[in-house]
Design brief:
Elements lengths: L1 E6 L6 E5 L4 E4 L5 H10 L9 E3 L5 H4 L2 H8 L3 E4 H8 L12 E4 L5 E3 L2 E7 L8 E7 L2 E6 L7 H6 L5 E5 L4 H6 L4 H8 L7 H11 L6 E5 L8 H14 L11 E3 L9 E2 L1
Parallel strand pairs: 3-4, 4-5, 5-6, 10-11, 11-12, 12-13
Antiparallel strand pairs: 1-2, 1-14, 2-3, 7-8, 8-9, 9-10
Helix pairs in contact: 8-9
Length: about 260
């Protein structure tokens, strides 16, 4: 299995996860041209993508969805609530009904040689999910847009080989920044986004001896820096109640506009 961030951040998200035989993307929150160029960078074409897994209907996750779906006829997988919300987004445009494949949180489904497990998450969207993608004994998690997490989520994420995990904002930067107060409260709420500190605390509960790597993603353009996210998450892991330190495994920060290195497990 392999994973690559085509784009990740508050301005647009698209994550590639694949095997030798199956190629998927999680979200299409950037233009079709950027998706195509990003896939080309790692030796793929958009018409080789066999499915788009949609987390939720916010524009930074579906901005390029209509164009890509219509041009290439790629099947779209999302919860019923998310599908209904997408159909109300005029910016997406008309998508052929047959391309929509409703899924349910907690029910695994199969595309090619991968099994996909949608997980219900706490976020201010219609029916949002995160995804764990499995191939035989290997698994990769794409976990963003979490307002909060609980013991159930921690249990579901045990044993991952690699993880793209949200580290959206620095709390202090957000609090003193220019965002309107209601938006600040939304981001900080249990239906908002994970802070750097919360991301590090969650990661510390997921590490195990065979864990390969983590990619920090969905960083806020206004309320975070890549270096700050990296150092904060690393420090939280090192100070946490776990036997690991922040330097015990590779950690990368996904760029909002540049394609990341390909993580192979």
């Amino acid at each position: 299995m392999e994973m690559c961030s085509i784009a990740s951040g508050s301005s647009g998200n698209c994550i590639y996860v694949g095997t030798d035989d199956t190629h998927l993307i999680v979200d299409a929150g950037i233009s079709g041209k950027r998706i195509e160029n990003g896939l080309n960078t790692i030796g793929l074409k958009t018409n080789e993508i066999q499915g788009i897994l949609i987390t939720h209907e916010h524009s930074d996750h579906i901005a390029g969805l209509g164009v890509v779906a219509r041009r290439y006829g790629i099947p779209l997988y999302a919860t019923a609530g998310t599908i209904a919300a997408i159909k109300k987004c005029s910016s997406v445009g008309k998508i052929e009904e047959s391309l929509f494949h409703p899924i349910e949180a907690g029910n695994q489904f199969t595309i090619g040689d991968m099994q996909i497990e949608p997980l219900a998450i706490s976020h201010d969207a219609a029916e949002p999910v995160a995804y764990i993608l499995h191939q035989q004994e290997k698994s990769i998690g794409v976990i963003t847009d979490l307002g909060t997490y609980d013991d159930w989520m921690v249990k579901k994420l045990q044993g991952l080989d690699a993880l793209l995990l949200e580290a959206n904002h620095d709390v202090r930067m957000l609090q003193v920044g220019s965002y309107p107060y209601p938006l600040k409260q939304r981001i900080l709420s249990e239906r908002g986004h994970l802070s750097n500190e919360s991301s590090g605390q969650l990661l510390g509960r997921l590490l195990h001896d065979d864990f390969k790597t983590v990619v920090l993603g969905h960083l806020s353009q206004e309320n975070n820096y890549a270096s700050l996210a990296y150092e904060t998450v690393r420090l939280e892991v090192s100070l946490g109640e776990n036997p690991y330190k922040g330097d015990d495994f590779p950690m990368y920060v996904a760029d909002r506009s540049e394609v990341s290195k390909v993580i192979q497990i």
